[in-house]
Every structure is written in structure tokens, then in C-alpha cells.
Amino acid sequence: MSDVAYKIDAVQLGKRIADTSMFLYLTDPGVPLAIAYRLWLLRSPARTIVVDTGPPIAEGRERHLTETRDLREALAVHDVDPRDIDTVLLTHLHWDHAANADQFPNARFYAQRDEIAFLRDGRHQHPAFDRFFSTHAHLEQLVDDGRLVPLDGDIEIARGVQAIRVGGHTPGSQMFCVDIAEGRALLTGDAVPLNRNYVERIPSGILVNVFEAIAALDKAHALSPIRLYTGHDLAPYLDLAN
Q1: Which of 2, 7, 96, 105 minimizes the number of CB atoms within 10 Å of its CB?
Q2: Which domain holds residue 17?
Q3: What is the pLDDT of residue 33?
Q4: Beta-carbon neighbour count of residue 10 at 10 Å?
Q5: How far apart are CA 74 and CA 49, in angstroms?
Q6: CA atoms of 13 and 110, how far apart (whole Å)
Q7: Spatial separation of the C-alpha atoms in residues 66 and 61, rounded to whole Å
Q8: Strands (E), the chain
């Protein structure tokens, strides 16, 4: 643990009813499931870091999200201006986690090298994968401009914030360990999309490698977080203190 403690705030930008099996591998197909779409604010006395960008409001509505919110208005509630953010950590590059990147004009973005390669080398263009991506041109321009920075495996991003590469959901999915006052928090993105995935060790239903997805769950447990922030659960976090 570092001597830096962050406060983590969930910023919800929408909700949707999904099929349970899309988020819990081969589990309860046809059963409706309510999910949330968020980004996360990490704030210490010295800085503010954003994890993921959430979905753009127009695209969210096109994809049948409800209770959609504009990112700038949602951040204003927390007294944050996206123009002041210099660091955005991306768990992966799916539309609902990265397509609002243009709302952070002064930020550098960080994703795993494998994730950026997947975006650029054409593999994602198969319809099974491509439906989860958007704003390809903008993300590729960020790479060309040096603003979408590749990470290689597990690495400390800042004091008290560490990236953990896991893959599974996408080739370069990553989680983030964050030091908070109570101990270690883990932001999982869609490597662990719901609290139930973690509790019952069920991998996500959206994946490129089921074995890596299972290993990601094992890694999340091995890190022994005191608090878990998953990708889409309605509950902003799962308290694991007891």
C-alpha cells in the first residue's frame, strides 16, 4: 500500500435491460438483467484520474439505454470539468467504456498494448466483436497523436494506482488496483462485469478467451480487495471487508 489514498466516485451515465447470459457465461439465457453504465473518478488531495469514459449520450440512446446523462453535466455534479482531466485509464476499448474520449480534450489515455493492437489490426472487424466498438477513427487518431498510450502488462500508473492486465473479455482488458483509506480497491471493468461474476466465479458472457476470463476472476480474488467496483452492476461497489 502507498501513502496515497483515493476517494472513488461512481458517475452513472445510463441503464439498460440486457440478457443475463451476455454478462454471465452460459447462464440464464433469456432472463432480463438490469445493468448500469458508468465511469469512475479517482480523487486524491493531489490529483483526479478518470477510469473509462462511459457511453456517449446519443449513442447510448441509439443502443436503447435509459436514464442517459451527458458526461459534462454528470461530472459537473462532482465539480469536475473534463477539460481539466489529464489522465484517463481505459479498462478496454468497447464503446461504452471508451467512446466518450473526445470529451476529454486535454487528457492522455492509457490502454494495454494488446487492446490497441486489436483495434488496429482488423481482428475486431468480425461482427461478433465489432458491434461492441465505435469511434474507431477517433481512437486511432489518439494513438497516432501519442495520446492513447500503450501499457505492457502490470504497471504502476501513479502512486496508489496500478494497472493489472488480464485479457479475456477483450485481448487487452485490464483492471486497476487503487489504494483507498480502507485498503485496496479493485476496479475491474468488464473483466468482472457484475458482482455475481465475482461471487460465483462465472466469467463474462462477452469474451475473446474464456480461459483468460476465468483467470481474470482468479486474479481478482487473489488480489483480496476490500472493495470491488465492477463494470456494470447496479450496485456501485461490493464491500468485501467482512
Answers
A1: 105
A2: 7-239
A3: 98
A4: 13
A5: 16
A6: 21
A7: 7
A8: 7-19, 32-43, 48-51, 87-89, 108-112, 148-151, 155-158, 161-165, 174-180, 183-189, 227-230, 238-239
Total H helices, total E strands in the chain: 8, 12
- Whether 1 maps to a domain, the answer reads no
Q: Which residues of the chain have pLDDT under 50?
A: none
Domain membership of residue 98 (yes or no) is yes
In a domain, 78, yes or no: yes
Number of domains into which the chain is organized: 1
Burial of 184 from C-beta contacts in 10 A (0-12 / 13-18 / 19+) = middle
Q: Are strands 48-51 and 87-89 parallel, antiparallel or unpaired?
A: parallel
Which residues have CB under 8 Å from 209's CB, separation 6+? 167, 168, 171
State the cell numbers at 194: 457484475
CATH of the domain at 194: 3.60.15.10
Residue 2, in any domain of the structure: no
Query: Cell match 468497447: residue?
Result: 94
Cβ-Cβ contacts under 8 Å for 2 (sequence gap 6 or more): 159, 160, 179
Angle at which helices 113-120 and 136-144 cross, to 10° = 120
CA dist 139 and 143 (Å) reads 6
C-alpha dist (Å) from residue 159 to 87, 181, 188, 223, 228: 13, 14, 19, 17, 19
Q: pTM to 2 decimals?
A: 0.97
Strand partners, 184: 179
